[in-house]
Structure formats: C-alpha cells, structure tokens
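It is worth pausing here to work through a concrete case rather than discussing structure prediction in the abstract. The textbook approach is simple: state the sequence, then state the predicted structure, then interpret. We follow exactly that order.
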Amino acid sequence: MEKVLIIDSSRVTASFIAKTLQRTGFICDMAYNYEQAESLIAINKYFAGLSSIFLDGVEPGRGIDLLLENDIPAIAVTSTLDESILTEISKKNIVDYVLKKREHAEYIERIVCRIYKNRGLKVMVVDDSSSVRNWISSILKRQGLEVLAAADGREASRLFNRNPDIKLVLTDYTMPEMDGLQLTAHLRTIMPMDELAIIVLSSDSKSRTAPLFIKTGANDFIHKSASFEEILCRVNSNLETLELIQESRDRANKDFLTGIWNRRYFFEYAEPLYRRYAEGGLPLCLALMDIDFFKKVNDTYGHDAGDRVLKEFAAMLTEHVGSKGLAARFGGEEFTVILDAVKEDELIPFLDEFRRKIEMHSLDYNGRTIRFTISIGCTGIKGSALSGMISRADSMLYEAKESGRNRVVCE
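Step two, the predicted structure:
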C-alpha cells in the first residue's frame, strides 16, 4: 500500500489521523513541522497528504503549499470553520478539508480512500462554456481523476465511444448540436445507471427540469450555483455508489477464495455466448481442467497450502486466458474455460502451453516447495447445447486422468 504524509504540529492530531488511515491499510509518515515535511517529501513518494492549516514557525497554509508544489493531492486539516479561512484555503486547489474531530474520522478515511481509488478513473465534463468546463475539470483533477472534456453532446458521444471505460459524466443542459437531455438519453442506451453515473449541472431553475433528467436516466442534478464542496460530495457519492454495486456484483459472481469467476457467472456468460456463436457458425472451444492429486497437497501441506495452490493456479489461468475467453472455478479443484478467440486447431497448443507453465511452476509455502500438475479435457465441437460441450470436455478430462494425468486430451 502506498504512503500518506501527515503534517501537523500537534502529535496528538497527527497520531489520530495516522491511526484512522492505518485501519484501512495505508502507511503513514508524520511530520511535526515544515522542515520535517520537506525532508520526508525529498526521499519518499506520497499519493496524498494531509496538512494542518496552521504550522509552528510558518505562515498559515504553508504546509498545504508544500504538498501542492510537489504534486501531492492536498487535504487541509482544520479545527475551525471560519468562513474567511476556509475560503482562502479553497483557493489553493486542495482536494478537500477535514476537521480535527474524532467524529470526522470516517470522513477522513473516505476522502483518502477516494483519492487512492480515483487514480486512472475516467470522468467526462460536457459544457459549451470553456470557463465552466475548466472550472469543473479543475475540481475533478484535484481528486486525482482523469478528466476528458467536450463542448457539446455530439462531441461527448464520440468521446464516450472512444472511451467506454468512463465512469461518470457531468453535463450541462443547454448546449448546441445535442443538449444534455438528449445526451443523457443516448448514453443510457449504451450504459445502465449501475455502470455509468450521469450528473447534470445546470443553471436552469425550472421546477420540472431536475425530475425530467432523473426520469431520462440521470443519477443526480446539481445547480450551477453549487459550491465546489457540494460538487465534490455529489461526485464522490455517485462514484462510491457505483463501487458498492460492483462489489455486490463481484460477491455474487466471483469465487470467494480465488477471486476468479464462479460457476453461476460462467453459465450466465457462456449460455448467450454459445447461442450467438452456434447461430453464427463461429468457432467456440471449451475446456475442463483439474489439479492432479489435489487431496495429496492438502494432506501433505495442510488446507491453507491447498488454498494457496488454488489461488495461484486461478491467477495463472486468468492471465493465460486473458482476452481469449473466460475462466471460472467450477468447484473444488476443477476449473473451466470457454474460449471464443481460439480456433479449434489452436486449442491443444494453447492449453498445452498452460499445462507446461503449471508443470514448471513452484510455490514456496512455510519454507517448503510445492509443485503440482493439471489434467485438461477439451472440445471444439459445439453440438446442440452448451451442456453437451461441457459433457464432452468432461469425458476428455476423465480420459486425461485415466491415461496418466498431466496432459491435454481433446475430442
């Protein structure tokens, strides 16, 4: 886990913030004056920093300036809600400010986690006003987000087509070519609300505008008079909601131990894929594989070692399959792979290459070296149903095991 720098003349406050963040797994360095902070920044890399507004021996805000000068996303730490002080601090392009109060510990943790998760996350700002576009973009860039910008809905549509991994769109309502309402409707034909958040930022004060956007598919609506704090909170809230939905989806669809797709998701994914490829006469291959003598691994090294073998095997399988198909754990030590980018005559070489990788691989566990092999059964004959492909691959797997294991047998 990467490091966070905490700058505060109060050891009590610095320690409180450090303990709060360490619960999440972050490594924290503490500086109790400006000079210590300079020294730590010179020899360390920090993905975020928290600095008290007031530090002994330097003018107010100097610790925040130090973070920003070194391209470290800065969070101001304050014990006051004085409007004039917060207004001045907000001009410094900080990520946010947090209060030196224990009841704000959860928010401190949330905002630092948000910065950590935002890296590489794409958002798009759509507004025909360059000044508004730049203002919103600057707020989002402070959070470590990768910001794409468009001047109207038509340009935004083209940008989205080139960047389908955009997670959040902030759009104006009134724009030439394609307005915000039309853009929202169009994006919803591509991506559902639980995969893409759309926030409308408009100066329109009509009472029906916000409900109209929500009914069209927007997740949120903010008036352009909103403060940067409100925009920040709404953006973070929508991103967190998307992540919670994804986490819930992963819990349902991924194997708890290995993190690979589970049997349930395999059938959800493979059934429509099979129908599409069968109807189109396209090549489709399926393989079942089993770790040889897995019970012996558990009996010899213990169940924790067995779990380690399963995790490492799943990671290697996922890497080998890559974009050529989908791999899943069927149960126990049995895994399955459906391949839509491997031709039938390429199937045995592709799977045998993986078998050899496993045979040559070893893992260290408590000072002992564990080696294992796998048996693989496969087929490129689609037949009349996915269940038939699975059955044929299973027969080939049985043959591979009966004929000596550590081999690939294909129908």
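Step three, interpretation. The domain at 120-251 is CATH 3.40.50.2300 (Rossmann fold). The first strand starts at residue 3 and ends at 7.
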